[in-house]
Amino acid sequence: MIVRSGIPLAPHTTFHIGGPARVFIEADTEEDIRAALGIAKRRALPLYPLGAGSNVLVKDEGVEGVVLKVASRDIVFEPGNDGSYRLIAGAGVRWDAVVDTAVSRGLSGIENLAGIPGTVGGATVQNIGAYGAELADVFEYADSIDTTTGALVRITRAESAFAYRSSFFKESRAHVIVRVALRLTTLGTPRVGYPDLARAREAGTPLSTPPEIAAAVRAIRSQKLPDPSEEGTAGSFFKNPVISDASVATLRARYPEMPVFPQGDGMAKVSLAWLLDRALSLKGYASGPVRLYERQPLVIVAREGATASQVDALAQEVARRVYDATGIVLEREVETFG
Ligand code: EPU
Question: Catalytic residue at 333?
């Protein structure tokens, strides 16, 4: 276990932004995580579990707390019945390495989630979703440390409370994930109904096997989303709003072409990228070194030297404009640390 003080967090985030952590701990094992919890408790500092930093905005003043980077890196396969496999991956494993390992064995379940930056732990907390799939579809259980008792507890599918970009872990904040078990299969059916994938198939892209789907998803992502190694970003900055059917009807009267995804419970998800682009003309909108990405305005990108307060100011301005135009109160997808 490595414990350090005053470590700059910018290099630990894909925004490449943020001040130092009061305490920064890299933990490999359950024991390390318990020791880190002990340090936080003794110093009365809040705990900030960190994966690859691909969904966080760290404040410029840094974090007055213990930033805990879980580094556990093992991947294990357990064959089951009927072509199914359990894949168990440490919380610190790079998510896309898990996708690579799975698809190279012909296993399906997570091929639509190829190319997403982040770790297995972060992917689970956040219930990552893209191109018609989400982590919840394959989740079996997660072993995690209860931060109040230090005990290792298994959170099952029934307890996981997955929702759009949310989970038990995100809601409760009282568990640090150690490893996650996913249920994959050799007998999967390709999910290629998402408009971008359907278009690729019409254009002749082969989409029958997990490796083919993963390759197609990566190609689509590279066209639409910025590469965090080139420009600071944390992907979608806001969630797509989920609003009542009545509010949708009012908006539809003004924006008949707005894409709407009914949720079946009197609520519907609307496309914020569409609203920002087509209703508010905010694509590429810049304020100093931060801007809404030209090819996907739900994504904020930050040039080198940008600060967290500049990102925050742009996000606030966007939220205000959306509220003024539509009455929708935006929720952030990206989490603020500090
Ligand atoms: N659109 C526009 N203009 C644009 C871009 C998009 O009008 O410039 C409209 C189009 O109608 C398009 C629709 O917006 O069909 C949806 O766009 P997209 O398919 O890119 O999906 P999204 O809803 O904007 C979500 C996730 C992404 C994920 C994609 C693909 C959220 C917050 N974001 O974006 O996840 O990659 O779907 O499935 O749900 C992330 O979470 O960081 C992320 C990138």
Answer: yes
pTM over 0.85: yes
Report how far apart, in Å, the C-alpha atoms of 155 and of each of 47, 91, 143 are: 20, 14, 6
How do the domains of the chain map onto residue ranges? 2-70, 75-224, 232-337
Atom of ligand 1 nearest to the CA of 239: 32
Give me the CATH code for the 232-337 domain, please.
3.90.78.10
Total residues found in the chain within this entry? 338
Residue in 134, 231, 236, 291 annotated catalytic: 236
User: In this structure, is the dihedral angle defined by the CA atoms of residues 320, 326, 328 and 331, taken in order, positive or negative?
Assistant: negative
Is 237 close to ligand 1, i.e. is its CB under 6 Å away? no
* pLDDT at site 193: 97
CATH architecture of 75-224: 2-Layer Sandwich (3.30)
The answer to whether domain 2-70 has CATH 3.40.1010.10 is: no
Mean pLDDT of the chain: 97
Confidence of residue 121 (pLDDT cuts 50, 70, 90): very high
pLDDT > 90? residue 73? no
Q: What six digits make up the tokens of 322?
A: 């959306």
Question: Judging by beta carbons within 10 Å of its beta carbon (0-12, 13-18, 19+), is residue 168 exposed, middle or buried?
Answer: buried
Residue with CA nearest ligand 1 atom 9: 274
211-236 as b/e, with b when 16 or more CB fall inside 10 Å? bbbbbbbeebbeeebbebeebbbbbb
Predicted pLDDT at 296 = 97
Based on its alpha-carbon atoms, the radius of gyration of the chain, rounded to whole angstroms, reads: 20
Write out the two tokens for 274.
Answer: 């569409």
Catalytic residue status for 332: no
CB atoms within 10 A of CB 203: 7
pLDDT tier at 72, thresholds 50, 70, 90: confident
CA angle at residue 187 from 185 to 190, to 5 degrees? 95
Q: How much of the chain exceeds pLDDT 90, in percent?
A: 98
Residue 54 near ligand 1, beta carbon < 6 Å: no
Q: Please give the average per-residue pLDDT across 262-290, as a whole number.
A: 97
Residue 299 has phi, psi (to 5 degrees) of -100, 130
